[in-house]
Amino acid sequence: MSHNFKPGDLAILKSSEAEHLIGSVVELIAYVGSEFHMVYAGTEAFNPNQHRIWWVKITSGQTFDSIVRGPVSDGFCGEFRLIPLRGDFAPEQQKSREVVA
């Protein structure tokens, strides 16, 4: 399922391998694709299930431990782990302005 994300969109992490980040807001930086294979500093990254993958940045200043880079606030994220913060998922005060009385 694609939410028609674009770079700059905000989303909430609904799941993460770094459990302390669940519920965090992230900014989508760039769409990586669904087919990639990368080797960086001897560590291999690939996407065997061909999920849509984004490069994201955590907006809260929290970090997670990257095997290759140490504590970081940005990294790969599967689109299936994201809840968009716009449209039907916008905060209630924003949606309430759209209601015509």
List the keywords.
41% strand, 101 residues, 5% helix, single chain, mainly beta, two-stranded antiparallel ribbon, 5-stranded antiparallel β-sheet
Give a structural overview.
The chain has 101 residues and is mainly β. The protein has one domain. 5% of the residues lie in helices and 41% in strands. It contains one helix and nine strands; from the N terminus they run βββββββββα. The chain has one helix at 92-96; strands spanning 10-13, 25-33, 37-40, 43-46, 53-58, 64-66, 70-72, 74-78, 82-84. Strands 8-5-2-1-9 form a five-stranded antiparallel β-sheet, with no helix packed on it. Strand 6 (64-66) and strand 7 form a beta hairpin. The radius of gyration is 15 Å and the shape is globular. The mean pLDDT is 78.
* Termini Cα gap: 33 Å
Structural class call reads: mainly beta
How many structurally independent domains? 1
Strand content: 35-45%
Instruction: Determine the oligomeric state from the structure.
Output: single chain
Q: What is the share of helical residues? A: under 10%
The number of distinct helices, counting runs of at least 4 residues, comes to 1
Which outline best applies?
globular
* Rg estimate, integer Å: 15 Å
Number of strands: 9
**Strand-and-helix sequence, N→C?**
EEEEEEEEEH
